[in-house]
Amino acid sequence: MIANPSAAAAERPPIVTLAGVGKTFDNGTEALAGVDLSVGRGEFLSLLGPSGCGKSTILRLVAGLDEPTTGVIDWHDGVAGRAAQRARNVGFVFQEPTLMPWAKVFENVWLPLRLKGVSRADAGPRIMAALESVGLADFATSYPRELSGGMKMRVSIARALATEPSVLLMDEPFAALDEITRFRLNDDLLHLWAEKAWTIVFVTHSVFESVYLSTRIAVMTGRPGHVATEVVVDEPSPRTAAFRTSAHYGEIASATSAALHEAMGE
Amino acid sequence: MSAAAPPARSREARRRRLDKWLRIGLPFAVLAALVVGWDFVVTANEIPTYILPRPGLVVWTIVADFGVLGPSLLNTLLITLLALALATIGGVALAIALTQSRIVEYSFFPIAVVLQVTPIVAIFPLINIYVGNDLAKLLICAWIVAFFPILSNTTLGLNSADRNLRDLYRLYGASRWQTLRYLQLPAAMPYFLGGLRIAGGLALIGAVVAEFVAGASGFGTGLASRIIESGYRLNIPRLFAALVLISATGILIYVSLSVLSNRILGKWHESAMDRGRR
Ligand SMILES: Nc1ncnc2c1ncn2[C@@H]1O[C@H](COP(=O)(O)OP(=O)(O)O)[C@@H](O)[C@H]1O
Ligand SMILES: [Mg+2]
């Protein structure tokens, strides 16, 4: 673990930066205030914090689904304006699988490409490759209701994969799953991240999940939400189950846990 | 444990088969009992035919008078189906318009409600005066009553698409048309089909009621006119025969629409899934 996180983060060029971002909802709820956060290209950043501290709100702002009330969100990719969002190609995985129940797995994964005007035939190989990488190639013609919770979540990930996103935003994607499935999906995700060189922003309320997955953890505190501390996880890739039981893992986890408690107590 | 699995599965299968038979068999058994009871009451009390005919006579009348009743049945059926088709087109089109624009919604939804809450019997004399064509009169009447459940259900359905899915569409830059076509219309399907089933019954009621009201003014070729006419002539068996044909038409419409609904939703919607599994 590195004590001075900003030095480590500076190694990667930022892809998106939030400066002084605040969000107050119409009903008066001040969800975020003064959020400063930089996402480095290719990093696996976790947002860790108690429920209700504004983690989902940050993801929605980064995705452009909501506008910040104060502050600015800067993308460092040279495109600007409304049309930029389409070109930018941000992937989003929600907490629930969010699949269309009337469409087969194949059609669900096709959706983002279809909306961009890619035909079924042209999208086919990419869709099958995405399904392949989450281990669901045999289920392309199944309906979502025929799948288990973990499989649905994997379809949801495959859908984000198929677009080859420059930034993948994931909002507690595994929170509703049992531990065995969650561990397996954690490993699958790390594998994909290493393979595709993506940038991932991953929301979780689990200290252990965040330590296992991330290169950096932003610890958040609520009312109104902001980033209290950052923890860098200096364990190299690839990480395996052995990392989960190592002393190094325990060390970082307890430090992160302490940071989270301090943030909640302040 | 593995030895216990096959019997458990076959017990489940047997239970499901039994459930299916019960669902079809029970209504018929109850109906048969009612008919037998009816026949018994008539013979035991020696009720004259001009008050309550025996069920056998009603069936015989349907066959014997089919030259008169058949064309009337066809007529009522035609008006009902035509009104249902027009109500479907109108209801869905207006529902789409309402959900595309708040201005349209605020402007037209209240008017649709007014049409719905005003009893059709009360409006009909006006329609009778304004509209010349007899067929058109009945059609308008049946359309007004059948239209609302389709409109309101479809509107509800179009607005009920999952919030996260809407966000997903927005995130991936979907156009209004794409959102409507790939998200809102499929999401509205179960609601629309529920509305269609209600509308099917209402279209028949509208067609019959309109003919009743119009019947007094002297035209009419549907089953309702046969009922009025038979009432005047005290031809009670024929009145019953016409009544049975109307009921049968209603049941036929309901069953066809239910089958259609299950066909369309079968693969994905809870409502269409096997009852045994719930
Ligand atoms: N659309 C909204 N309108 C009003 N308040 C909201 C809305 N979305 C979230 N909030 C509030 O903002 C706060 C942060 O929410 P959220 O970002 O979902 O937290 P988290 O994801 O960390 O659990 C909560 O207090 C929540 O009630
Ligand atoms: Mg959340």
From TrEMBL, chain B:
Task: Tell me where the signal peptide lies.
Answer: none
Stored CDD domains: TM_PBP2
**UniProt keyword Acetylation, yes or no:** no
Any one cellular component term from GO for this entry?
plasma membrane
Q: Is Transmembrane helix included in the keywords of this UniProt record?
A: yes
Q: Which residues form the ABC transmembrane type-1 domain?
A: 73-261
Transmembrane regions: 21-41, 76-96, 108-131, 138-158, 198-219, 239-260
The alphabetized UniProt keywords are: Cell membrane, Membrane, Transmembrane, Transmembrane helix, Transport
Q: Which family does it belong to?
A: Belongs to the binding-protein-dependent transport system permease family.
Protein known as: ABC transporter permease
Q: Which organism is it from?
A: Acuticoccus mangrovi
Q: What is the lineage of its organism?
A: Bacteria, Pseudomonadati, Pseudomonadota, Alphaproteobacteria, Hyphomicrobiales
